[in-house]
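Subject: for your reference before the review

Hello V.,

The reviewers asked for a structural picture of the protein, and I figured it would be easier to keep everything in one thread rather than splitting it across files. Below is the amino acid sequence we used in the manuscript, unchanged from the supplementary table.
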Amino acid sequence: MPIAPDAKDWTWVLERTCAECGFDPDTITYESIPGRVRASAAALAAALDRPNAAVRPDDSTWSPLEYAAHVRDVCRIFEHRLDITRTGSARPGPPIGGYDTSVVVDDSGIPVFADWDQDVTALAENYGAQHPAQVAAELRAAGETTSRAFESVAAGERERPAKRSNGSLFTVESLARYFTHDVVHHAHDVEKRSAATT
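And here is what came back from the structure prediction:
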């Protein structure tokens, strides 16, 4: 059954510590971001080796498989958003169900990428029916590719701006932190629920 949609605006994690996963934006250096993403992606991928990886703990919570498929797509989407932010223009995006790759440039010359409804994508891509081993491999690859993309950004580029269509303003640096929290948070979600069932 579908999970209740998450309509929260998570940009607050750029200003204060996340009480759920412990992510503290003030202690995260840009240089540490790729390593954190790689470690969290690896932990999520490893969770798919478990025999119950495709089983939801309850009707309102994703299975480890669904979380991992979501984070794989998060990595792909944020690589695309980083490309948009660095170039200030529309760029080819990943073919993900429910993801709008369109970009407009506002009157200030700032690129604006479309908001993303993760719940629409989860249904369109049928996360729960995907193969755990394939998702694990794709997640590792996407985590590595996106980590390298953020690593390639020179210090002088990190203040380049972009907007989300709901009005949220990002720079390369804040986009990186926002993205990293998403990956770290979901790795924590899966580990916490795994610990509760063992």
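For the response letter, the relevant points are probably these. Residues 30-196 form a domain with the Four Helix Bundle (Hemerythrin (Met), subunit A) fold (CATH 1.20.120.450). Strands lie at 103-105, 111-113, 161-164, 169-171.

Happy to draft the paragraph if you're swamped.

O.
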